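Issue 218. Parser rejects a valid record. Input:
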Amino acid sequence: MGNLTLVPESRPERALPRRRVRAVAVGSTTIGGDAPIAIQSMCATKTTNIEATLAQIGLLERAGADLIRIAVDSRKDIEALEEIRKETAANLVIDLQENYRLAASAAPFVQKFRYNPGHLHHHQRETPVADKVKYLVDLAGAHDCAIRVGVNFGSLDPAVREQSEDPREAALASAGFHVELLEKLGFQRYVVSLKSSDPRAVVAINREFALRYPDVPLHLGVTEAGLLPDGAIKTRIAFEQLLAQGIGETVRVSLTLPDSEKDKEIFTAREIIEDVAAGRFRSVPDFLSSGLNVISCPSCSRVENGAFVRLAQEVKAALQYAREHSLTVAVMGCRVNGPGETDEADLGLWCAPTFVNLKRGETLLGKFAYDEVIPRLLQEVEAIIAERGAAQ
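Output the parser choked on:
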C-alpha cells in the first residue's frame, strides 16, 4: 500500500496516516503530496442558470470547498461557464458528460476536468479511446489543468463490463487501462476515483487500487448516497475504512439536498475527516482485526436516551478483561445509526428510549433494560471466545 506516514492536517494537533502519493496541483489547491485532504462538491444547479450557479458556488466556498464541480454538456453551458468564470475565482472542475470534445472550449475557464471512461465510447465511436485521452491530455497541458479519471460501477464501458462478471474487477480494469494511457503520454497530473453506491464495494476497490498504484492520488466518494441521514452514514462507512488506512487524498460526499443546503456536503466531509483523525469511529472499521475494538457513536441530538453515553463507558470498562481478543463491539445511541451500523460488529448494542437492542452480527438477540444488558452482553462475549477457542 506504499509507505504510510503522518501528514499534518489543517490543524497541527490532528494527523492522519497518509500514503506518499504524487502531488497534483488544481488551481490554488493541491491533491496529494503533503497537502491536507481536499474537500469538494458539485453544483446541483443548471449551468445555464448563471445567477443560481454563482450563488451555489458562493455557498460552497463559504463552507470551505476546495474544489467545485459543474456540469458542461452543451455549447450553452460553455457560454454560461465563461460568464461564471468572470464572477468567481473558485477552483472549478467541469464534469464532461457524453461529449468529451467540449473540453476544448471549457479548458480556459477551469482548473480541472473529469471524464468517465465509460462515457468516452458514446461520442465518435470510430475514434480509438487512446486518441480521445490524448486529446484531453493535450488540452490539459496547454491550459494548466488537472484531470480526474472517474470510474463508476453504474456506467462502465460495455466492452470492459463484458470481460468480467465482477463489476469491481471490471472497474479496476478500466481504471488501470486509463492509468497506463496517461502514463504512456507522460501525463501525471491526474487523480482517479472508483465509485459505487455500495460503500463496501468502494472500500474494497479503493484498497485494491491503492495496492496496485501506490503513487496515484485517489478521489473518494460513494455515488448516489442519497438523502440524509442515510447518505452520510453510507459515506462514513466507506471513508472511515479508507481514511484510517491512509487511502484518499480528496473526498466528495454525494447527498440529495435542496440547492440552499448543498453546503452540507462540505460539512459532512469535514466532520468525517476530523472524526477519523481524532479516532472517533461511528461505523465498524473492520481493518482493526487485532484486539478488542469497542465502537461507539458520539452523543448527538439523535440519541434517544442520555444513558447511552454512560452505557458505552460501562461496556468498554466491562470488556477490558477481553482486550486481547479480536472482538468488535458496537454501541450506538439511536435507531438511525444503530440497526445498520451494528450489523458488521461481532456484538452490537443500539439504544432505544427505554431499552437496548442486543445483536450478534445481524441477528437480534433481544431487548434489555439499560441496567440489564451488560450481563447478557458478557454471556455472548464468553460464548464467542469459547467457540473460537474450540475452532482453533
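Fixed in the parser; the record now loads. The first helix runs from residue 50 to 63.
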